[in-house]
Amino acid sequence: TPPVLDVRDLSKTFAIRRSFFGRGGGAVHAVDGISFAIAEGETLGLVGESGCGKSTAGRAILRLTEPTAGEVWLDGERIDGLGAGEMRLKRRDIQVVFQDPYSSLNPRLRARDIVAEPLRNFASAIPGGIEERVADLFDRVGLRPDQMDRFPHEFSGGQRQRLVIARALALKPRVIICDEAVSALDVSVQAQVINLLARLQRETGVAFLFISHDLAVVEHVSHRVAVMYLGRIVEIADKAALYGQPRHPYTQALLSAAPVPDPDGRRDRTILKGEVPSPINRPSGCHFRTRCPSAAAECAKVSPVLRDVGGNHHVACHLVEG
Ligand code: SF4
Ligand code: MG
Question: Which terms are listed as keywords in the entry (predicted)?
């Protein structure tokens, strides 16, 4: 069977106008030829610092932004070229959960109608009554029946995210893209929502692309993990290998960086030393070389390709031996 989600050489380039850029305009290679596949019932974590392109990758897969190049396959069907109408139908199978549930919920709709909305749009596909289905979804995500008539502002942040998850699950999608889906929640609530996602995956076989800057959360939820830096995947491996034996100098630096307190005091965040170079003007060769402790002359000249170093572990670094 084909993977549920198969992303091949996906790129997204944004043109920058002359007036903005100074001399002659330019381009931001936000996503630069990334490839990965996710199987049924699998969670792939996509991790990296702010601005690495991970959110743009998710948006390009969903066609919330048009990919510049590459292919996206869903259950063996290519979807990147579909027209708007066909893509709307595909959204039954590929759903999204963003960081801020409040902004993605209509404040004037009651919770029951928020969850029922996608069901009504695809009513012919729903055996049994919509009301029954909504009640079942509330139960699955741990919301109470007496909460069905509430409005979004009457829920806590964690409950609102449960509501968004219920809506995302309504049409039994094959894959859900979670973009910082728990990042705005308190740590204890994060754990509850993560456990909910894991249980729903066991029950339904849904696949997740779990996008986050938070290494600890990604380690907790993922089966495999891909690390992005300035638009490219630099390492991708099974979770245990990636966290236990990271091979790319960037992944090693991320994992060994000292945790510093988050300004909101919510949780410790790992912050790597040194500035991320501008995505408008990435270093030649290996984009990580300006922060890499192992950089050699070759690294400025030749861009390392992602290659298999054994055990389904892929690394893009000249110094890593297969
Ligand atoms: Fe560092 Fe060179 Fe490897 Fe890039 S290719 S991560 S600069 S050693
Ligand atoms: Mg983001």
Answer: ATP-binding, Nucleotide-binding, Transport
